[in-house]
């Protein structure tokens, strides 16, 4: 019948949306409007991932250097617990103020805490200082995912998990080689290993 024929010829709106989504590609994430925001978020995620691996690799040398092996586990657990605790507060701050200001603040907190940990003269102080970058790092991840869901159009949101996951993947591929290059330097006699 004629109505059935017209129905068969009618375009599928779902197909139109899919075609538009494919045509946009990565422009919603890397275009002129949001490109700098995307790069900033991804760099923050990458630095946080690198920092965790650096600490895990250098901690045996740090324990040998400053002692306090009984506080060894607190260096990691304090960071992890602070990251978890920061999640709801970071989400609320991003909802109230937008992602830009909280993200910048948490980068500053993360950097300050990492600097304090690097100069900690004892293991208890190092464990305490690690809580600060843990708070900043956990908040950065929360704000990053929130920014992707709010600041980007619907056509680009489905692509946001890929670059965030890529930061950990790239770091995981590069870090073993970087560690192999750094290991002889850290093992030199009389050299005080850096702490992060």
Write a concise keyword list for the protein shown above.
mainly alpha; disordered N terminus; 82% helix; 196 residues; disordered C terminus
Question: What Rg do the Cα atoms give?
Answer: 23 Å
Cα end-to-end separation: 75 Å
Counted by DSSP, the helix tally is 9
Which percent band covers the strand fraction?
A: under 5%
Instruction: Determine the fraction of residues in helical runs and give it as a percent range.
Output: over 70%
The gist of it:
Helix content is 82%, strand content 0%. Helix 5 runs antiparallel to helix 6, helix 5 packs parallel to helix 7 and helix 6 packs antiparallel against helix 7. The protein is elongated.
SSE arrangement:
Blueprint: H1 2-9, H2 13-24, H3 27-30, H4 35-66, H5 72-97, H6 100-118, H7 123-151, H8 154-157, H9 161-186
Helix pairs in contact: 4-7, 4-9, 5-6, 5-7, 6-7
Explain what you see.
The chain is an all-alpha fold and 196 residues long. It is 82% helix and 0% strand. It is built from nine helices and no strands. The longest helix has 32 residues. It is elongated and about 55 Å long. The termini are far apart. The relative contact order is 0.15.
